[in-house]
Specification:
4 strands; alpha+beta; 9% strand; 4-stranded mixed beta sheet; 148 residues
């Protein structure tokens, strides 16, 4: 009985380590151009996730019902798609196609390098602080050099 408990406990701990290890790696830093994320976030100045449009603009996800970015992520994916399907399952698990962007570590990834330049240049506006993107969606910067 005691041996069965230890085996079950060990298995449970292993599952937790694998689960949390994999989920944290999915939002880890992009380091090179082998993969271009659909969602990015700034590792040093965290202000939430940003969607990368097919045209190279960045749209900050808004929180819905003061708790969740998923509905807005799903809306953007359903409207404009994902940049790279590797790792994609459903829009509810959008963090699987997200990576963090950090100065130095992520400059080898074109999307992150452009996002960090954009993020450093943008002026904080009331629309970004409140999550209201209606006035800013079409005025994002196209820093990827891709025509919409």
């Amino acid at each position: 009985m005691k041996m069965q408990f230890r085996t079950n406990l060990s298995l449970f701990v292993l599952v937790l380590v694998l689960f949390f290890g994999i989920s944290s790696a999915q939002a880890g830093p992009c380091r090179n151009n082998n993969w271009q994320p659909t969602f990015v976030h700034d590792l040093e100045n965290e202000d939430g996730p940003w969607y990368v449009t097919p045209g190279g603009q960045f749209i900050k996800l808004r929180i819905v019902n003061n708790r969740d970015w998923v509905p807005h992520a799903c809306e953007l994916i359903n409207r404009s798609g994902v940049r790279n399907r590797r790792g994609y399952t459903t829009c509810r698990q959008y963090t699987r196609i997200q990576c963090g962007c950090g100065r130095g570590v992520s400059m080898g990834n074109r999307t992150c390098a452009n996002f960090l330049r954009f993020h450093n240049r943008r002026q904080p506006t009331e629309a970004y602080r409140t999550g209201n993107q209606s006035n800013n969606q079409s005025s994002g910067l196209n820093l990827l050099g891709v025509s919409p």
